[in-house]
Fold this protein.
Amino acid sequence: MRVATKASGWRARIAVLGTVLAVAGCGEVDQPALPRLTPAEEEAATGSVFAYRTDAELAVVRGTETVRAPGSFGYSSAPVTFTRDGQYAFAVETSSKTLVALGVRDRSVTRIPCDCADAVSLRGSVVAWWREPGQIMSMDLAGDEPPAAEREIVLPDSPSPLTGGAWDGAKLVAATDEFVLLARVESRGLWWEKSHLYAIGADAILPLGRVPGIDAGLSAAAGPDGHTFVLAGATARSATCGSGNVATIDANTNGVRSLPTLPGECSAVYNPRWSADGSITIATRKWADLAGAPSMVDRLQSAAQGWAPIGEYPVVDMLPREQESIQVVAGEPTDARGTPHGVLVVQKGDARAELAQRVVSLGAPTAG
């Protein structure tokens, strides 16, 4: 597998600083590598660090600087993900199935032909993805080694029986220190699919099976406790209409808690987030089952009576920040089949800046 990496002059200068220097009277002394900053230290030193994606580029915003990498992300509405150490943002191209990563500090651009649909942050700067017929592949974006098999996997039978379909691949959808969550897809072709979940731990592979209502278009995010995940997906009624659903699942017990169903004739939910304070937010689309019907887009937050808008007006995505507002403001209603996008707006106090157009999703390093 070929991995092409482009490093800027900044990375080259950092490498030089880490080489052996001659010190008078002391011979040669190995200089320690520059310490890595945590996301919190990075933000304090340079301003906010976050990333955004359009259908044609991945970008990292670091204070007043924006670094971009072109990519063919197509119709995907997947969020931008950061590595655990906050040093790299990445997303997967839909057509070429190539992972594109951007370095936060060194501005490096890395392209990994992963033949995958999704990838997760495993540890440090290590990313991982699924490769058929049964391998978790990984690569350290901070290193020079090519991708390698992290683990060979034989998936046990799902506790949920097949319902007339056949296995059609799998993907890693979320990861914590305890588990990697994998979704194995059962399909009959076209729009019909069912998702069967597995929690892969250090000592065991736990077959969790299907979660009611979470059939097609499954996406997931890890909860604060390390073994519970929030799931978003849909139950399709036809090729043009389905109902979006959200649930949580505990990998230790296989306990499922269904959250309120999204109202509307046809709906979809995706890109869930589970914050440290316990709040869950989801991206949503709602439309009528009519030819050419537009879809209404917003990001909602779990509330006592169901779901409530996270912002004052509809947004495609939003990052929770104390000192500033980072949001993708939704424009006119889009076609129900189209990928929602909007204008990236950053507001701090009275200062408001529009950074990019046709933005699909956001991402930020985890606190630490």
